[in-house]
């Protein structure tokens, strides 16, 4: 009896061992090990502080969340303060400002590009008057965003498009190929001038 049972058990085990894996499970991929994030490098850079006087006048608070409406309202108040202080002029969708520094044309243009704008380029009388405010404030001549084109005496904007608005002083431009830039006098009139002179930087944004 025991002998027969052993034979029967051996046969059952052999049959089970020969059967395919009923679940047919694929081998699961290994879980990748989690590594610690690389810490950011330390820096000594400091965030510049805004002038306290202006912050007080626009009542900026940073101890609560700021909504888009709050941000827009504060920006409008800041713009109003800057206009009141004569730091900017706003004409249409242009904001015109000056660094108060005198440099040559290339440096002036680079400064304006660096802050996301371009050298002041009056397109109408209102914009010309806005630039004039800085010429009078600093009592300095101002370079404008135009250069002489291939035809002597014909000036284009910096993108190559011919100027559509001008305010030349009588008899100007007179350089005829020798004075490739445009300056504004302190009365708002224009003159063609060499590009290597020191003139007030005025930008539009």
The domain tally reads 2
Secondary-structure class: alpha+beta
What would the principal axes of the Cα set say about the shape? Answer: elongated
Strand order of the largest sheet: 1-2-8-3
**In CATH's first tier, which class of the largest domain applies?**
Alpha Beta
Distance between the termini: 104 Å
CATH-defined architecture of the largest domain: Roll
Round the Cα radius of gyration to an integer and report it: 37 Å
Oligomer: single chain
H/E topology pattern: HHHEEHEHEEEEE
Provide the helix percentage.
Answer: 25-40%
* Low-confidence runs: 1-17, 19-26
Could you walk me through the main structural features you see in this protein, from its secondary elements to its overall organization?
There is one protein chain. With 205 residues, the protein is α+β, with helices and mostly antiparallel strands. The protein has 2 domains: 49-85, no CATH class; 90-204, Mannose-Binding Protein A, Chain A, CATH 3.10.100. The protein is 32% helix and 20% strand. It contains 5 helices and 8 strands; from the N terminus they run H-H-H-E-E-H-E-H-E-E-E-E-E. The strands form 2 sheets. The protein has a 4-stranded antiparallel β-sheet, sandwiched between helices. Strand 6 (181-184) and strand 7 form a beta hairpin.
Please specify the SSE layout and strand pairing.
Layout: H1 2-18, H2 52-58, H3 68-84, E1 88-91, E2 94-103, H4 105-114, E3 118-119, H5 125-138, E4 142-148, E5 155-157, E6 181-184, E7 190-193, E8 199-204
Helix pairs in contact: 2-3
């Amino acid at each position: 009896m025991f002998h027969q049972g052993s034979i029967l058990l051996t046969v059952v085990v052999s049959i089970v061992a020969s059967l395919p894996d009923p679940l047919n499970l694929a081998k699961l991929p290994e879980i990748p090990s989690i590594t610690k994030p690389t810490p950011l490098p330390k820096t000594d850079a400091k965030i510049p502080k805004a002038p306290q006087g202006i912050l007080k006048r626009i009542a900026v608070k940073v101890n609560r969340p700021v909504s888009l409406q709050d941000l827009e309202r504060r920006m409008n108040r800041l713009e109003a303060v800057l206009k009141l202080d004569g730091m900017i002029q706003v004409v249409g969708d242009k904001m015109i400002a000056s660094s108060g520094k005198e440099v040559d044309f290339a440096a002036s243009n680079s400064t304006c590009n660096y802050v996301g704008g371009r050298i002041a380029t009056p397109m109408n009388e209102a914009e010309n008057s806005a630039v004039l405010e800085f010429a009078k404030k600093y009592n300095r001549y101002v370079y404008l965003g135009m250069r002489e084109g291939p035809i002597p005496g014909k000036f284009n904007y910096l993108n190559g498009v011919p100027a559509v608005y001008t305010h030349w002083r009588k008899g100007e431009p007179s350089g005829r190929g020798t004075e490739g830039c445009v300056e504004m006098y302190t009365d708002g009139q224009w003159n063609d001038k060499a590009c290597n002179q020191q003139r007030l930087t005025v930008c539009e944004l």
